[in-house]
Amino acid sequence: MDTSWSRVGAKGGEVTGKLNDILRSFDATQPSKSVPALLDLRKTLGSLGDDPWVAQKRTELDGVIGACLGLHLEAVVEKPVAQPGEELAVQVEAINRSPLTVKLKSPVAYTLPPNELKTEKTTVTLPKDLPFSEPYWLREPGTVGTYAVADQTLIGQPENPPPLPIEAVLEVGGQEITYTLEPRSRHVDRVAGETSEPLVIAPPAFVEFPQPVFVFGNEKSKAMTVRVVATTEHFSSEVSLQAPVGWKVEPASFPVKLEGAGSEMSSTFQVTPPPTSGEVALRAFLGGTPASSRQRIDYPHIEPQTLISPARARLVRAKIENAAKKVGYIPGAGDAIPECLREIGSEVKVLSDGEIKAENLKQFYAVVLGVRIYNVHPERIGSWSREPRAYAQTGRVCLAHYNTTPGPQPGQRPDRLHASTGR
Question: How far apart are CA 52 and CA 61, in angstroms?
Fold first, then answer.
């Protein structure tokens, strides 16, 4: 199989020769010396037709030219979140760290002097049909184990393309080179210093439910408080919840008026279930339009990710007979056990160290030890592990969730209990 440049045409051998010459003469202390030869190679690639591999290598070559110029290009936006159809101020920053003449022709025009930061502001209008910043594989409902992607050209990309690509056109050595910039917002963190993140395209406000599932064990209504969070400076509307026939939501709506991006308000609805069992979806609306919710994933080792999805929750009407009216809970690594128990009608008391006494535990129908409690509190559990055991020996229920090794030590567990790493 021929993998050389000769497979793309008669001039393929010429490309190979020029590449070898550039590699031999490359000076790591002055990379810009290779730029004229790289531009000449770029011309040669342009004469090889529209072969997809040639187009890809030409794009990669443009990146090499920018690196040899010591080129810095960045598009900075004034705020982290914008809405479709909005006018957005963008500051284009550029530095040419080489002695060669480089001119920026678009979106703003000026010559880049060596080793000098040049900035210029411009205004762009976001398309009204610009999709929200949601991972492309989550935009459509999928099936078990698969995602649905309408735009097949996106498949294989690890992340979304920039929502508003800014094309910076430079003139170098008589040739125009286009670099695509992703608009980013900046802020200063007291620990990390100056950081930046991609521009997020979002609706003017989000509606957030306190939890994804609400369980109704009888026909009694439940209070449901939703938060409305603005992403624009001025937002006015009304928030409402809609459930299928048989469910009752009161009141019909609440007015919303928020000033300032990030401002929020809460509204409490009363939701009453039907007498029959079933599971339905509860949707939130803003001004009659289906609302969206937001989940932000932010870790130091990755770019912040924003998940935007329909604002909805599941309503479950089930016939539940719960004998555990009062439950004691000892926190572990963090879980939603107390919230889930409260959903089915239990009164849950989160216990502090001083309350973990066998005599005090007698007031509870059951005591629950949270997830990985023996792993995350090894220095504390030794002092009170005897108390839940003494409580259980009176015939009460003491439930310990999963733990990993080393897990509970002898004297902290029933004799025949063993924690393994088996799968």
Answer: 14
